[in-house]
Design goal:
By secondary structure, this protein is mainly alpha-helical. The chain has one domain. Helices cover 68% and strands 0% of the residues. Helix 5 (90-98) runs antiparallel to helix 6 (112-118).
Protein backbone atom coordinates (compact mmCIF):
# COMPACT_ATOMS: atom_id res chain seq x y z
CA UNK A 1 0.00 0.00 0.00
CA UNK A 2 1.52 3.29 -1.08
CA UNK A 3 1.12 6.55 0.77
CA UNK A 4 -0.63 8.99 -1.55
CA UNK A 5 1.65 11.64 -2.94
CA UNK A 6 4.82 9.71 -2.11
CA UNK A 7 6.19 9.87 -5.66
CA UNK A 8 4.60 6.91 -7.42
CA UNK A 9 3.65 3.43 -6.28
CA UNK A 10 7.15 1.89 -6.18
CA UNK A 11 8.69 4.91 -4.45
CA UNK A 12 5.69 5.16 -2.14
CA UNK A 13 5.89 1.49 -1.17
CA UNK A 14 9.58 1.85 -0.31
CA UNK A 15 8.88 4.97 1.71
CA UNK A 16 6.11 3.22 3.62
CA UNK A 17 8.33 0.20 4.37
CA UNK A 18 11.15 2.47 5.48
CA UNK A 19 8.81 4.46 7.72
CA UNK A 20 7.39 1.32 9.32
CA UNK A 21 10.88 -0.13 9.83
CA UNK A 22 12.07 3.00 11.62
CA UNK A 23 8.85 3.15 13.64
CA UNK A 24 9.34 -0.49 14.72
CA UNK A 25 12.96 0.22 15.66
CA UNK A 26 11.99 3.24 17.75
CA UNK A 27 9.14 1.42 19.49
CA UNK A 28 11.30 -1.65 20.14
CA UNK A 29 14.02 0.45 21.73
CA UNK A 30 11.37 2.39 23.67
CA UNK A 31 9.91 -0.83 25.09
CA UNK A 32 13.39 -2.00 26.10
CA UNK A 33 13.80 1.14 28.24
CA UNK A 34 10.87 -0.09 30.35
CA UNK A 35 11.76 -3.80 30.21
CA UNK A 36 15.42 -3.42 31.25
CA UNK A 37 15.89 0.15 32.53
CA UNK A 38 19.01 -0.82 34.49
CA UNK A 39 20.91 -1.36 31.24
CA UNK A 40 20.23 2.24 30.23
CA UNK A 41 20.62 3.81 33.68
CA UNK A 42 24.34 3.05 33.63
CA UNK A 43 24.94 5.25 30.57
CA UNK A 44 22.96 8.31 31.65
CA UNK A 45 25.31 11.29 32.04
CA UNK A 46 25.47 12.27 35.70
CA UNK A 47 24.62 15.90 34.95
CA UNK A 48 21.15 14.82 33.77
CA UNK A 49 20.13 13.81 37.28
CA UNK A 50 17.95 10.83 38.20
CA UNK A 51 18.93 8.04 35.80
CA UNK A 52 15.67 6.10 36.17
CA UNK A 53 13.57 9.15 35.35
CA UNK A 54 15.71 9.97 32.32
CA UNK A 55 15.52 6.37 31.06
CA UNK A 56 11.75 6.23 31.43
CA UNK A 57 11.28 9.65 29.80
CA UNK A 58 13.52 8.74 26.87
CA UNK A 59 11.74 5.41 26.48
CA UNK A 60 8.38 7.19 26.40
CA UNK A 61 9.74 9.66 23.85
CA UNK A 62 10.98 6.80 21.64
CA UNK A 63 7.60 5.06 21.87
CA UNK A 64 5.78 8.28 21.03
CA UNK A 65 8.06 9.07 18.08
CA UNK A 66 7.63 5.54 16.73
CA UNK A 67 3.86 5.64 17.11
CA UNK A 68 3.62 9.05 15.43
CA UNK A 69 5.81 7.79 12.60
CA UNK A 70 3.65 4.71 12.09
CA UNK A 71 0.38 6.60 11.77
CA UNK A 72 -0.30 8.16 8.35
CA UNK A 73 -1.83 11.33 9.80
CA UNK A 74 1.23 12.06 11.97
CA UNK A 75 4.02 10.41 9.95
CA UNK A 76 5.95 13.59 9.17
CA UNK A 77 5.73 14.87 12.74
CA UNK A 78 6.86 11.42 13.86
CA UNK A 79 9.89 11.55 11.59
CA UNK A 80 10.89 14.96 12.96
CA UNK A 81 10.26 13.73 16.52
CA UNK A 82 12.53 10.78 15.78
CA UNK A 83 15.30 13.14 14.67
CA UNK A 84 14.94 15.11 17.91
CA UNK A 85 14.91 11.98 20.10
CA UNK A 86 17.96 10.47 18.39
CA UNK A 87 19.91 13.70 18.87
CA UNK A 88 18.69 14.02 22.48
CA UNK A 89 19.89 10.54 23.48
CA UNK A 90 23.34 11.03 21.96
CA UNK A 91 24.88 12.23 25.27
CA UNK A 92 24.14 8.78 26.73
CA UNK A 93 26.11 7.18 23.88
CA UNK A 94 28.99 9.59 24.58
CA UNK A 95 28.83 8.76 28.30
CA UNK A 96 28.95 5.05 27.47
CA UNK A 97 32.09 5.63 25.39
CA UNK A 98 33.71 7.78 28.09
CA UNK A 99 32.97 5.07 30.66
CA UNK A 100 34.60 2.44 28.40
CA UNK A 101 31.36 0.59 27.72
CA UNK A 102 28.87 -0.72 30.25
CA UNK A 103 30.66 -2.08 33.31
CA UNK A 104 29.99 -5.77 33.83
CA UNK A 105 28.31 -6.22 30.45
CA UNK A 106 29.62 -8.73 27.96
CA UNK A 107 30.78 -7.94 24.45
CA UNK A 108 29.88 -5.69 22.67
CA UNK A 109 28.24 -3.49 25.34
CA UNK A 110 31.13 -3.89 27.76
CA UNK A 111 33.80 -3.14 25.18
CA UNK A 112 35.46 0.30 25.14
CA UNK A 113 36.25 -0.07 21.43
CA UNK A 114 32.66 -1.00 20.59
CA UNK A 115 31.39 1.92 22.70
CA UNK A 116 33.49 4.38 20.70
CA UNK A 117 32.66 2.75 17.36
CA UNK A 118 28.96 2.99 18.22
CA UNK A 119 29.02 6.81 18.30
CA UNK A 120 29.09 7.36 14.52
CA UNK A 121 26.23 4.87 14.06
CA UNK A 122 23.83 7.52 15.35
CA UNK A 123 24.52 9.63 12.24
CA UNK A 124 22.84 7.29 9.71
CA UNK A 125 19.88 6.84 12.06
CA UNK A 126 19.38 10.60 12.27
CA UNK A 127 19.87 10.80 8.50
CA UNK A 128 17.25 8.10 7.94
CA UNK A 129 14.66 9.95 10.03
CA UNK A 130 15.63 13.28 8.45
CA UNK A 131 15.23 11.86 4.93
CA UNK A 132 11.81 10.46 5.79
CA UNK A 133 10.69 13.77 7.25
CA UNK A 134 11.81 15.64 4.13
CA UNK A 135 10.28 13.17 1.65
CA UNK A 136 6.87 12.71 3.25
CA UNK A 137 4.01 15.05 2.50
CA UNK A 138 2.78 16.85 5.63
CA UNK A 139 -0.59 15.06 5.55
CA UNK A 140 -1.96 12.03 3.73
CA UNK A 141 -3.95 12.96 0.64
Amino acid sequence: MADPGAGGRAAGDGLVRSRYALAALMMGVGVSHFAVPEAYERIIPRWLGDPRGVVLASGAAELAAGALLALPATRRAGAWATVVVLVAVFPANVQMALDGGIAGAGFPLGSPVAAWLRLPLQVPLVGWAWALARRMPPRPA
